[in-house]
Specification:
55 residues, mainly alpha, 85% helix
Length: 55
């Protein structure tokens, strides 16, 4: 629900990648999914793309 609300307020191109990063972080921290270094590396790459795309 929060992602759908954010998509009404902000551009979809900004909200969608950030929601994927947040979901990955929550899956790692709360659910204990494997390979945290690999997940964090992917999250950093996605966040870098979002920041460069906004700037």
């Amino acid at each position: 629900m929060l992602v759908l609300f954010a998509m009404q307020v902000a551009p979809v191109g900004l909200v969608a990648p950030l929601s994927i990063v947040i979901a990955g972080l929550l899956a790692w921290r709360l659910l204990g999914e494997a390979q945290p270094v690999r997940r964090m590396t992917g999250a950093v790459v996605v966040l870098t793309g979002v920041v460069l795309g906004v700037a």
